[in-house]
Structures
1.
Amino acid sequence: MTLSLISLGLWNEKSMSLEALEAAKNCDVLYMEEYTAKLAGAGNEKIGEEIGEKINLLEREKVESDFLIKESEGKKVGLLVGGDALTATTHIDLMLEAKKKGIETKYIPGTSIYSVAPGLAGLQIYKFGRTASVPFPQENFRPETAYDILKENKKMGLHTLVLLDTEPANMTANEGMKVLLEIEEKRSEIVFTNETGVVVVARAGSENPLVKYGKVGELLGEDLGEPLHCFIVPGKLHFKEEEALSLNK
Amino acid sequence: MTLSLISLGLWNEKSMSLEALEAAKNCDVLYMEEYTAKLAGAGNEKIGEEIGEKINLLEREKVESDFLIKESEGKKVGLLVGGDALTATTHIDLMLEAKKKGIETKYIPGTSIYSVAPGLAGLQIYKFGRTASVPFPQENFRPETAYDILKENKKMGLHTLVLLDTEPANMTANEGMKVLLEIEEKRSEIVFTNETGVVVVARAGSENPLVKYGKVGELLGEDLGEPLHCFIVPGKLHFKEEEALSLNK
């Protein structure tokens, strides 16, 4: 019948739109997943209370199987997702599969770190290049893509938003910076060093987000508080951006 | 006292978050501006009905003066803005000025075209380069920045989101494509031609957005319906992205 992808926005049960709330109430059954994005300020129970319905937490395997497609054949199914649902490839794929099966699909947007982090930092969003993601390094998997993206953006004077892994744990900005410093140590291309300026954005979307600007060497050992963290490596700064950053030193 | 920047999200009076609604109700006086971003699905009256308070529309000059700062000295002032308020430089500046004057500031995020358009098109947001904006060309002002950005992103295989002017009118995707074709004619660098693939995204955030993939030459003469329009010039496509686009041909 219908598969609705309902975005929850960035922080807690108040972050979703009025439209999202109405769409959720209209569903016959509600699921939620927490592995492509996690709401730091609310779990499925709090969200369920706000909507007034029970929400079933789905593990990754189920989301990626044909479970939701099958469920949607005879029912109005809603999948609740933190942030903006369609920033995750998994959910783009899900919508695609549903459409191919002739199931009606709906998508309700949500606030996303992609637009909120730049604004919180006081940086101009149209001066951002490609976004980088830092995964937890593993024995045989130490990707350097984030470093390459930083290098490219730097060359063009563009800012870079650096997103951090959320699985199996929430990577802190400190950990993320360490991962990039290790790549720097290996490649020595002077892309990300202790002297590099960064803006840490923590708990974006909450009432008390942290925005802190400094050098990597200064911020590396600081306690940046509760998750989620991300950071921005600024490129060439407009004087107004400079001013905004100086207020958050 | 307090200056709250309250984002309204992408479409109408239902696009704002629950938090935004509460924040607006808490203000002593509410203003709205429609020149950095316009809600195509609702004006200040409909928004006011939803909130249950009168909303005063502010013209550009007032927003950019110290009017709001002065107002905020003794009152809880809310400024309502379509999309995400802090994607506009004007509002970053406003927050900066308020902070410098010691006025408490709040920011409530909203859904933004920056994250919603990629998802609607079925394209992966982390493969987007810098965003381009196309202004209406004027006698003595025919900027080619958008063309340059398309060229850079193309070189790196990245997708480009192309935003269109909303002042003095809403530029259609057709008009935007024409502007870029004229620059192509002049520069001949084969960046944006009749053969270039584009995805038009119209009325993002509404219940019936249009997503249409085709060549510039095909879409140029098509009626793409009501505003707002934007489009995406895809770079190198993953096969899943290819599949998503083919469903919207």
2.
Amino acid sequence: MFSQETKIGVLGGGQLGRMLVQSAINFNLDLKVLDPDPNAPCKSISQFEVGNLKDEATVHQFGKTCDVLTIEIEAVNIAALKRLEQEGVKVFPQPHIIEIIQDKRIQKQFYKQYNIPTADFILTETKADVIKNVHFLPAVHKLGKDGYDGRGVQIIRTESDLDKAFDAPGILEKLIPFEKELAVIVARNEKGEVNAFPVVEMAFHPVHNLVEYLFAPATLSEEISQKAKKIALEVIEKLELVGILAVEMFLTKDGEILVNEVAPRPHNSGHQTIEANHTSQYEQHLRAILNLPLGDTAEKIPSAMVNLLGEDGFSGPAVYEGMDEVLKVSGVHVHLYGKKITKPFRKMGHVTICDSNLEKLREKAIFVKNTLKVKS
Amino acid sequence: MFSQETKIGVLGGGQLGRMLVQSAINFNLDLKVLDPDPNAPCKSISQFEVGNLKDEATVHQFGKTCDVLTIEIEAVNIAALKRLEQEGVKVFPQPHIIEIIQDKRIQKQFYKQYNIPTADFILTETKADVIKNVHFLPAVHKLGKDGYDGRGVQIIRTESDLDKAFDAPGILEKLIPFEKELAVIVARNEKGEVNAFPVVEMAFHPVHNLVEYLFAPATLSEEISQKAKKIALEVIEKLELVGILAVEMFLTKDGEILVNEVAPRPHNSGHQTIEANHTSQYEQHLRAILNLPLGDTAEKIPSAMVNLLGEDGFSGPAVYEGMDEVLKVSGVHVHLYGKKITKPFRKMGHVTICDSNLEKLREKAIFVKNTLKVKS
């Protein structure tokens, strides 16, 4: 049963935590947040503590006063979470699932084991291992652990790229000549109730591997769309995860859907749900971990999302150029992440654009992308 | 030009301030809030200071470190605000306008002076004055100052009600046999740009004079709707107010629109804009006081709003009954105000319901009203 007295802890105080806190205000829930950065985005809007998320004692200490503990980043100490779980704290997503997802090698084996469609892959231990598998190219080489926001991923098309390989445990994955990159956010509460948000499509920055534009809903046939949702729901049900799960997928040129990777938390591909859907991904995550009924995921209006990255060549206190111009555009929602300092390609915020006219939506998204700049 | 470094102060830390703070998070603006109650709703989500809003020194001290100072309640010290204004702080709404609105006697005279349609009235100084004007009944008797949330208002239908009259300066206003109560929120920035939200209609609790249901948009002819907006815009332009202004109006049985009263701040009649409109009243207020372009006020979807009042007969730590049931309903958005203690008829939160089917919208609103209860 809902109680505003439930003590909820969040590991990680970045923008995802920030938007989770912002959503929790509606339920009178004062979230407690742990982050190593004393200036993390959650700092001034939550009960904020500074500490290392990978340190067992710190995480255990932080979590033991919570009724429910959740994450906004996967790189956290699992041993502490398992201890807390044994001590009766509800840890959602469950620690053993975070452990699976933390390591892309284990994650990929999980898909294989449960017949979830995914690109073929080879486990590699060292750089030499990657070089040995030259026959497998073109491929994507990913570090098993600690990849983040495009880091820890290298595209190795030909022999001449082999030098980029990581000399650490990873996977070598067949490069998929995909038609589109899709994402579906699914949710599951403790009762086992599940549901899926509409499928969205993303356009990535060609070099920095960050989402540049997102469109919701994706332009897909009903069949493909249902297939994508079905696969995403299969993943969360096989994992028996409590919380939300963002499932990133490739739609191949021959209409196949392959799971790329998943994130057991609010995700960049769900920001637009704040304005465009009946329930936001943040509220859905809270509903799931508090065992409340899941909210309706339907769209109120089509939307696009543009990440606001620090402009290349600028480092220092952030200044937003073009703000007035974009605020003049109808249906524009600016979200800044509380970061005072900008760096090249740092995620400083995002903008959601809502418009029932898809043509105008696209034009507005491009206008926002080209107009709003983070400089210093 | 927009800067995330702009220091904004808010006088009042109640639910309106809380939702303003929640909205300001999107712009990286850390709001500083002053409220006499150490447990005010804004307490844990802002830079919060405890102090008397009617004390000149306290308000002056609080305001002098701000670039922009605003209010979420009208009962504030005007002398301090006028000093701050002279010292270069941007005080929006402007102090002389708050002063007009604070006193219903001056407010009414303002309407008269500018030919803004409003119910006929008589200024009264004492209870004896009211009794003397028995020929004016049936009437509504209002205290000039310090009325709030239904307090300070008495309906005096016949001679036998005369004993309820306040023995203090007030107004005696002709009781309007109205068809509907309407409200329009309008905004104006420093550049003088203005716009209006769609007209909403309200149903009040018959005894406690608090909004029970709100429907947006109101069911009105286009002609009446345009007339209501035009009058509301006239009020904000005549006042030359910077910020938002909620204009409450009566639609009389013969299609006339009369201004009842105004509030120069976010208002109970605009909560639903958070989910249902392109721009929320809170963001609109921020845009107006920061001299940013005003946002599009259009609706994304029709909505209803239900105030969540403390159940009669319960005082103490709040417990929410029926939360699971209402959260199961599609399009329901619960907003709790961060109040730990409930009292009979205390405003503890509100629920917005969005549905494009107007029939279902009404049913859902009634279901929410009858299901979600604040007890202790």
